[in-house]
Amino acid sequence: MELIQKVALFFELRSFGVSTWFARKMSIEVSKVRLFFIYASFIALGSPVIVYLAMAFILEHKHIFKLQRRRKSIWEL
């Protein structure tokens, strides 16, 4: 039982904030996004978990994926 509690604590502390980020972008409640991922995972046999992990990877490394702001002229260096 101790192992299960450690795993649960690990995921609670490091849940990546994907649901919160997605809810803010879509202007909906976080609980609805979490329920969507849970229900979709049961219906689609776990494939939304792959989408969730991909979103988590992008959020953790968004500084790499963020597009550079384009300068208007050479004088804005």
Shape: elongated
**What structural class should be given to the helix and strand makeup?**
mainly alpha
Strand content: under 5%
Helicity range of the residues?
Answer: 55-70%
Overall average residue pLDDT = 80
Q: State the end-to-end CA separation.
A: 58 Å
Largest sheet: none
Indicate the radius of gyration in whole angstroms: 17 Å
Oligomer: single chain
Number of helices: 5
Q: Kindly state the number of beta strands.
A: 0
Q: Give the uncertain stretches in residue-range form.
A: none
H and E string: HHHHH
Give keywords.
77 residues; mainly alpha; 69% helix; 0% strand; elongated
Give an overview in words.
The chain has 77 residues and is mainly alpha-helical. The chain has helices at 2-13, 18-26, 30-43, 47-60, 62-65. The chain is built from 5 helices and no strands. The protein is elongated. The chain has a domain at 17-67. Helix 2 packs across helix 3 (30-43). The model has no long low-confidence stretch (mean pLDDT 80). The longest helix is centred in the middle third of the chain and has 14 residues, at 30-43.
Write a concise synopsis of the structure shown.
The protein has 77 residues and is mostly helical. It contains five helices and no strands. It has a domain at 17-67.
